[in-house]
Design goal:
The chain is of the alpha/beta class. It is 31% helix and 21% strand.
Length: 275
Amino acid sequence: MSVASVRNPLMIQERLLPSSPNWIQHGFQHIQRYTFATTFTRQQRVLDLACGVGYGSFILRAHGATEVLGVDLEPEAIRYAREHYCMPRLEFTQDDALTCRFGDRSFDVMTSFETIEHLPQPREFLRNAAQLLVPGGRLLLSAPNTLQYLRGTPPIENPFHINEPDYGTLRDWLDECFEIEAEWEQSPVIGDGGEAERTATLQDLARQGIIRLGRSVETLLRRMADRPLPPIMPAEPGSGAMIGSTAIIPLLPERRAACNVFLFVCRRKRDHPGS
C-alpha cells in the first residue's frame, strides 16, 4: 500500500488518501485486502509494515486485533495517520521496512500490502519481517503480478515499482524464511475497458454524486469487516459504474500468470536463518 526504504518526493502520489478522487477507483481494493486480513488478525498483536496513511491499521484494530503498530518510512504519512486514526492500542511510528527493530517487542501477524515491489532488496525485507514475528507468526503479503503489469501486453509501467515479481519469483523470495499456507489472488471481476473508460466512469460518478455514495459504502464495509470476502457492488443498479471491481479468490495453478495481484498467507519458519 505504501512505499518503504526508497525516499522520493513524488512517492506521495503512490499513496491513497480516503479523501482523494482516486479513492473511488482504487481505495476499495485496499479496503478489501484489509477486510480479508481481519480473519487472521483478531486477538493478535499486529504489525502493519508500510502502513501508508493508516486506514488499514485502523481497520485491523477496529475489528479485533489486540494491538496494532503501523510503520511507514514517510513522516508525512505517519502524521496523517496519527491525526485521523486515533484509537487505544493503535500506534504509528516512522521507520524503515528493511531495518526496523522494536526491542523485545514481536508480533503474531504482519500485514504488508503492495510494498515489496517498491523495494531494492526484497529478500532483506523478508528476512527482517521474519525477525519481527514470533516463531510460527503469520505474514500476509500482496504484490502485483509483473506479467500483468511491466511484462504485460501492453506493458503497464509504474515508476514507483522497481521489483515486480512473477509467481515463481515471489515464491523464491519467500522460501528462505516463510512457508506459504495459502495462495490467493485479487483480480478484476468486471471487464476493464481501459484508461479512457475508467476516466469516463469517474466523470460520471462525479456528475451523479456517487462519490458521496462511495464514502457511505466505505463506512458500510468497515461495519461488515467480520465478513472475510466482502462483495464489491455496482455504484448504482444498472449504471455499470463500479466503485470497485475486484474479488479475492483462491489462486488456481492455471491463474498464476493471469492474476493481477498475489495475496499470500505465510508462516514464519522456525529454523529460518537468524532465528
